[in-house]
Amino acid sequence: MYEFDYQRPSSLSEAASMLSGEATLMAGGQTLIPTLKQRLAMPSAVIDIGGIAELSGISAGGGSVSIGATTRHAAVADSADVKGAIPALAKLAEGIGDPQVRNMGTIGGSIANNDPAADYPAAVVGLGATVHTNKREIAADNFFTGMFETALAEDEIVTKVVFPVPEKAGYMKFPNPASRYAMVGVFVAQTGGGVRVAVTGAGPSVFRVAEMESALGGNFWASAIEGISVSADGLNADIHGSAAYRAHLVGVMARRAVAEAGG
Amino acid sequence: MPTVSMKVNGQDASADVEPRTLLVQYLREHLNLTGTHVGCDTSQCGACVVHVDGRSVKSCTMLAMQAAGSEVTTIEGLAQNGELHPMQEAFKENHGLQCGFCTPGMIMSAIDLVNRHPNPDEQTVREELEGNICRCTGYHNIVKAVLDASGKMGG
Ligand SMILES: Cc1cc2nc3c(=O)[nH]c(=O)nc-3n(C[C@H](O)[C@H](O)[C@H](O)COP(=O)(O)OP(=O)(O)OC[C@H]3O[C@@H](n4cnc5c(N)ncnc54)[C@H](O)[C@@H]3O)c2cc1C
Ligand code: FES
Ligand code: FES
User: Fold this and answer.
1) If you measure from the C-alpha of residue B36 to the centroid of ligand 2, how many angstroms do you get, rounded to a whole number?
2) Quick check: CB of B101 below 6 Å from ligand 3?
């Protein structure tokens, strides 16, 4: 690691005032610290927002579940509010990495990082959530813009993610057996505004599958999407699997996610 | 250099460290608590697992400064008055270790898992040890040890 200054602000406004120049935010550090160790980043200062009380916590009510940016994966997995309103979201959190990663990693860090194989982006897009920052609100469909890219400005801080409660939802991933990151993960939700199908792990960034959404809109049943395949063009290929393999997995995981949702 | 203070195994600890110092370096190099191991240094193996405020974390993936003001427990803090913790005893009794390199982290993860799942089944134990790698035992006796200890902890 290169040298840096460390700061631990106690409020959001204090954190925002420190975030200038080459300073970077740290929430759980489960992505940032490995990045710093490899000297892939050289921040002047690390602003640790992990202890800011106003950024953490879960509340449910009025048809939505709100999760503070620095809420740990383990807290989401264990939350009675999340399990009650959106069990698929609790299950997704429970499947991230391992217990030690879940004890430190946060939802805000996960979506700000937008790793192509991360789990949360599938839920954020699949449920049509809204990302709140210290400057504005961003709809899920506009938040994830490319591989490790989001709509966030350099000095913008995610404060919470608000998930509308769906009628039904399911998440299925084929985990990489070593890291548990998603080779392919599919989040399917039946919502007031129609069915949403969001895929992570397969492409450079999370994407929706319109053809599956309209088929499931007519008949929310796994067999409704039996014949629908996605093109392998532009999908990820690496030592773990080819683009064609991932394209195939999208169909399999989508059908299992629908079955998981009770369809 | 900033001074970083925390409680380690019930005692006040303090050291002047660079901000980039990892918690595991703080424990091993500044406090000489070398029971916590570094296996991979890339967040994969779990040899470095300690408890921070009661939760198991990988101390190679946490800055010492993040733990400032916290209560940290390492493998050295488990035995009380010369008596092994039931989890340590169970690893010994069930031959849950061979070379012993993974054992400190394995035991710290195992205690956290039994705290959260007081009577785990075998599947739960295997899933919960996802973040700990052992190159020797094939896990079988580790799982046996955790199941054995779970009957003796807190009960
Ligand atoms: C061994 C291992 C296995 C893993 N397996 C999985 C897995 O299966 N699935 C999965 O999805 N993830 C996995 N992860 C990643 C893990 O979920 C991380 O915790 C997560 O991606 C980042 O969260 P963090 O809080 O640790 O962020 P940090 O590492 O603290 O930060 C990551 C990035 O986000 C920025 N950031 C953090 N918080 C905010 C905020 N509030 N606003 C704006 N920017 C912010 C930081 O500046 C930084 O650039 C794994 C990690 C490890 C080490
Ligand atoms: S040394 Fe920390 S996980 Fe391997
Ligand atoms: S006993 Fe040797 S690595 Fe586990």
Assistant:
1) 10
2) yes
What CATH number is attached to the domain comprising A176? 3.30.390.50
The reply to whether A147 falls in a domain is no
Using 50, 70 and 90 to split pLDDT, how confident is the model at B84?
very high
Among A9, A32, A49, where does a domain finish?
Answer: A49
- Whether A111 maps to a domain, the answer reads no
A131 to chain B, closest Cα gap in Å: 26
Contacts of B105 (CB under 8 A, 6+ apart): B36, B37, B39, B45, B46, B47, B48, B49, B132
List C-alpha distances in Å: A200 to A96, A196, A209, B75. Answer: 13, 13, 11, 38
How many domains does chain A divide into?
2
Interface contact B112, partner A, CB < 8 A: yes
**Is there a domain that residue A176 lies in?**
yes
Residue A246 CA to residue B96 CA, distance in Å, equals 38
Confidence of residue B57 (pLDDT cuts 50, 70, 90): very high
User: A44-88 pLDDT, tens per residue?
Assistant: 999 999 999 999 999 999 999 999 999 999 999 999 999 999 999
CB A123 within 8 A of CB A129: yes
Q: In the structure, which protein residues have their CB atom closer than 6 angstroms to any atom of ligand 2?
A: B 38-41, 43-48, 58, 60
Percentage of residues in chain A having pLDDT higher than 70:
100
Question: Which domains, ranges and CATH numbers included, belong to chain B?
Answer: 3-77 (3.10.20.30), 86-152 (1.10.150.120)
Q: Domain residues for A10?
A: 1-49
